[in-house]
Amino acid sequence: LFDENASCHFAIGNAYSENIKGGAEFSDEDKKKIGMNNSIIHVDFMVGGPELSVIGVKKDGTQVQILKNGNWAI
């Protein structure tokens, strides 16, 4: 996953419920209620470059620069 972690990525297709707290126990109906996509495919797209900046936000609201100008900042 180094390529995904060194760029910004998004995906279309099947959603992964294990990425949501408690999601591993969701029924198909629970997933549908919250708008999770159910598909036989999942495709990742990576984007990046010198203009890319990624800022993470901690639970307390503190911001942490992850990528700055396309380079690791941590």
TrEMBL record:
GO terms of biological process kind: proteolysis
UniProt-listed Pfam families: Peptidase_M29
Keyword Hydrolase tagged: yes
Source superkingdom: Bacteria
Keywords: Aminopeptidase, Hydrolase, Metal-binding, Protease
InterPro entries: M29_Exopeptidase, Peptidase_M29
GO molecular function: aminopeptidase activity; metal ion binding
Keyword Nucleotide-binding: no
SUPFAM superfamilies: Thermophilic metalloprotease-like
Protein name: Aminopeptidase
